[in-house]
Amino acid sequence: MQSLDKDPQGNGNSGSRYSFIRVGVTTNIEGIGLEKAGIKTEKSKVVVDDFYQTSVPGIFAIGDIVHGPALAHVASAEGIICVEKLQTWMFIRWIMEIFRLAPILTRK
Ligand SMILES: Cc1cc2nc3c(=O)[nH]c(=O)nc-3n(C[C@H](O)[C@H](O)[C@H](O)COP(=O)(O)OP(=O)(O)OC[C@H]3O[C@@H](n4cnc5c(N)ncnc54)[C@H](O)[C@@H]3O)c2cc1C
């Protein structure tokens, strides 16, 4: 946080009527084992593909820790995209299982 309510020498009140305060937010992904798990990061964000899958298949990331606008409704939309993709995969696997098991189950 930085206040501009000082003169250039850093002394007391600059005499201005207004102060400008800026606040920054950053991710907190260091030291939680991402590197050990093989999950790629870039500039303090987790690297994901278009469906929010990380560099490790089956592990997904959404929200402020991935690149893009850090907003609540963006995080929600990312979650929906991610889960819908997972549902599609599960459905495809389910169909494949039926094709695999059908000949076995219908064998006389
Ligand atoms: C002051 C402020 C105002 C904002 N106003 C708006 C707004 O008006 N509209 C808007 O759309 N967005 C707003 N945002 C942004 C919004 O809050 C975030 O984009 C959103 O919360 C991101 O969701 P998230 O799930 O990625 O992260 P978070 O909501 O931050 O959730 C992360 C969770 O993980 C937990 N966590 C962290 N580290 C660990 C760990 N090591 N182990 C386990 N749990 C952990 C945290 O405690 C937290 O509960 C604002 C943000 C701030 C800071």
The total count of strands amounts to 4
Mean of residue pLDDT values: 88
Number of domains: 1
Ranges where pLDDT stays below 50 over 5 or more residues in a row are: none
Oligomer category: single chain
Task: Briefly note the structural class of the backbone.
Answer: mainly alpha
Shape: elongated
Output the helix-strand order: EEHEEH
Helix content: 25-40%
Main sheet specs: 2 strands, antiparallel
Radius of gyration, taken over Cα atoms and rounded to an integer in Å: 24 Å
What percent of residues are in strands? 5-15%
Please describe what this structure looks like.
The protein is mainly alpha-helical and 108 residues long. 35% of the residues lie in helices and 7% in strands. It has a two-stranded antiparallel ribbon. A hairpin with a 2-residue loop joins β3 and β4. The radius of gyration is 24 Å and the shape is elongated. The N and C termini lie far apart (75 Å). The mean pLDDT is 88. Bound molecules: flavin-adenine dinucleotide (FAD). Flavin-adenine dinucleotide (FAD) binds next to α2. Flavin-adenine dinucleotide binds next to α2.
Structural key phrases:
108 residues; mainly alpha; two-stranded antiparallel ribbon; 2 helices; 35% helix; binds flavin-adenine dinucleotide
